[in-house]
Amino acid sequence: MRDTTRLTTAATAVDPSQISEIQYALSLTPRQLPAWLLYDDLGTALFEAICHLPWYGVTRVERQLLSRHAASIVEAAGRPTRLVELGAGSGDKLATFIDAGWPLRPPLVAELVDVSSGALQASRLRLAALEHVELKTWPLSYEPGLQEVARSADADRRTLVLFLGSNLGNFDPPDAELFLRQVRAVLGAGDALLIGTDLVKDARTLQLAYDDPLGVTAAFNRNLLVRLNRDLHANFDLARFVHEARWDAEASRVEMHLVSLARQDIRIPDAELAFSLEKGESIWTERSYKYEAPEVMRRLADAGFAPTAQWCDTAAGFALTLAHADD
Question: What's this model's pTM, rounded to 2 decimal places?
Answer without folding.
Answer: 0.90
